[in-house]
Amino acid sequence: MQKKKCAYVLAASQNIIFAAGNVALELNRYMPDEEFDILIYHRGLERKDVKALNKIKNVVLREFILPQGFEEAILNNMPSGRLKNKNSLLTFAHYEVFNLLDEYQTAIWLYIDTSVQGNIKGLQSFGPVGMAEDKHDYGRFPVQVNFVKPVPGFDMEAPAFCSAVVVASDKLPDPKKIYKWCLDKSIELAEYLITPDQGIINLALQYFKLKVNVFPFEEYIAFSSWPQAHLAKIVHFGTAAKVWNTSDLYQAYPQWQRTHLEYLSLGGSDFDRSTLEQNNIIVGYRYLQQECHELKELLQRQRNYFESGYGRKSYYLFGFLPLLSWRKNMSSLKIKFLGVPLWKEKRKNNKRSFFLLGFIPLLKINRK
Question: At what angle do helices 196-207 and 175-188 cross, to 10 degrees?
């Protein structure tokens, strides 16, 4: 059988199938003339989403079938966490990038909590195995972060690779063996798993002594909060804060919004947008900018006020006879001469009142 050139591999449950539709539409937008399939693994979808996805060029829907006993072994033994649920079992479709290499020359896994912002054909050159380093602001994460405890026989302090995007090509030796090993190891190590797919794939790299061709994290899997993420070819919303549930992300990535509306026009499922701010992010930015400006002015006025002599001062004749004294605070200024009240000023908001001898009303000013 003649192999096809490339498959982009996605997986989604019904509750976030709109995100898979978003990635599929963006892949076609930025690579309209390239040869590839978009395989979307699922475990059952509503009819309207099946229809919508089938309208998208290059999409191939595949039901994800786990080996017998796999689901029970994982859910019964995996530690509690956000990935311990039936929907998250689709994360194990990650391993299909190895299983698909008898059909495709290259298979590329993409998380669906991403936004494709450019032509990513260049990823195909990173086979037989291509991944990005699993980074944070201060360096790289070790393999251990994917497990609750060290796994015997592996270097858990070795730098980890990020599985949000994985490239595999048919130059990889015995990919079926790697595929089966990953599934078997997932069951064997279920009680260790925090990030199941990423952890097991990192162990497989060690076990099979695979050399990883590293592609730039900042270009192909940039975190959405990074300063230059808007220029990356792929942005990753890699925490519980997603573009579809967090207003600042929803506003910061308008292309994702527009692509979602395109998916809706095909008849696909929506998500609850009622809690998300719909305005352009510049509206909120300018409001905060104005608030910061006003706060800065207020602080400067307070600074000037304090520097002008906030407090009290007294002068004495012969060292003991009170000659002149003044007392100043946030609401008043009082001046005495020879111990007798001479001047009094009262402040309240924008109003000023002045008194002669401390009690005779002299002047009132209202600053608007």
Answer: 120
Give the percent of the chain with pLDDT over 70: 93
The residues, ordered by sequence, that sit 6+ positions from 213 with a Cβ below 8 Å of its Cβ are: 126, 127, 128, 129, 130, 167
Task: Tell me the β-bridge partners of 222.
Answer: 235
pLDDT of the residue at 49: 98
364: amino acid identity, one letter: K
- Residue showing tokens 């989604």: 12
Read off the tokens for 47: 């009819």
Tokens of 324: 């002149």
Report residue 274 as tokens: 């009622």
CA distances from 210 to 126, 127, 167, 365 (A): 13, 11, 13, 80
Average pLDDT estimate for 98-103: 97
DSSP annotation string for 242-293: -TTT-HHHHHH-HHHHHHHHHHHHTT------TTS--S-HHHHHHHHHHHHH
Residues 6+ apart with CB under 8 A from 130: 123, 166, 167, 168, 212, 213, 214, 215
Measured CA to CA, the distance from residue 347 to residue 342 in angstroms comes to: 17
**According to the model, what pLDDT value does residue 307 have?**
53
Pairwise CA distance, residues 29 & 177, whole Å: 35
pLDDT digits (tens, 9 = 90+) for 264-318: 999 999 999 998 887 776 666 666 777 777 778 777 776 665 555 456 777 777 7
Per-residue pLDDT band at 338 (split at 50, 70, 90) = confident
* Prior bond of 128 cis (ω within 30°): yes
Q: Got the DSSP string for 121-132?
A: GGGGGG-SEEEE
What does the DSSP 8-state code read for residue 301?
A: H
CA nearest to 310, candidates 295, 296, 324, 331: 331
User: Rounded mean pLDDT of the chain?
Assistant: 89
Could you tell me which of 270, 271, 268 has the C-alpha nearest to residue 54? 268
